[in-house]
Amino acid sequence: MVEDTHVQDVLELTQLKHRYCHAIDDGDYETWVSLFADNGSFVRAGVDRYDGHDEIRTFANDVFDAAFSYSAHIVTNPVVEVSNETATGRWYLFLPYLSSEGERGWKQGVYEDTFRREHDKWRFETVTISMREDRTLGGTG
After folding, report:
1. How far apart are CA 115 and CA 124, in angstroms?
2. What percentage of the chain has pLDDT greater than the value 70?
3. Do the Cβ atoms of 82 and 114 come closer than 8 Å?
4. Residue 71's beta-bridge partner residues?
5. How far is it, in rounded angstroms, from Cα 106 to Cα 98?
6. Which of 1, 35, 42, 111 has the greatest number of beta carbons closer than 10 A?
7. Whole-angstrom Cα distance, residue 133 to residue 69?
8. Closest among 20, 36, 17, 29 to 118, alpha carbons compared
9. What pLDDT does 141 receive?
């Protein structure tokens, strides 16, 4: 039997991931950064890594914002496991987008997240995205 606290933690972690998606797509980078632990990390597997709030904010402002004029992070198939004050999550990502150059496309990848409870709230310890597919659909905005 699953404990009620475990179910509550899974719901909170799922909501955290959804807030992550909404914040980055809305350009609310301060909220997005605040979802990470104080010394959290954002990793694009095989590409680059950003450690701590300042570097994560730099990624949002300088890399992500420059790449997309529109994006919609859609995460599915969550597998969340909780162990006391830490947790892991795995999600598929589908990302339709409009690039800053006006190209339409979509990306598909997998998020591997680690979480920890910090200041009585769940936060991302590490978000790692591994991209699997990137398709430009042609045409512009």
Report:
1. 5
2. 94
3. no
4. 97
5. 9
6. 42
7. 20
8. 36
9. 52
**What is the token pair recorded at 125?**
């310890």
CATH code matching the domain that covers 4-140, chosen among 3.10.450.50, 3.30.420.10, 3.40.50.720, 3.40.50.2000: 3.10.450.50
For residue 102 the two structure tokens come to 């006006």
CA–CA distance, 118 with 122 (Å, rounded to integer)? 6
Distance CA 57, CA 79 (A): 27
pTM recorded for the entire structure: 0.92
Q: Determine the Cα–Cα distance for residues 94 and 118; give it in Å rounded to an integer.
A: 29
In terms of DSSP bridges, do strands 121-140 and 36-44 run parallel, antiparallel, or are they unpaired? parallel
Taking 80 as the threshold, does the pLDDT of residue 40 lie above it? yes
**Cα atoms in the 13 Å half-sphere on the side-chain side of 74:** 8
Rounded to whole angstroms, the Cα distance separating 83 from 141 reads 45
Q: How many other CB atoms are there within 10 angstroms of residue 40's CB atom? A: 23
| Contacts for 53 with CB less than 8 Å, ≥ 6 apart | 33, 34, 36, 38, 40
Q: Rounded CA gap, 132 and 141, in Å?
A: 24
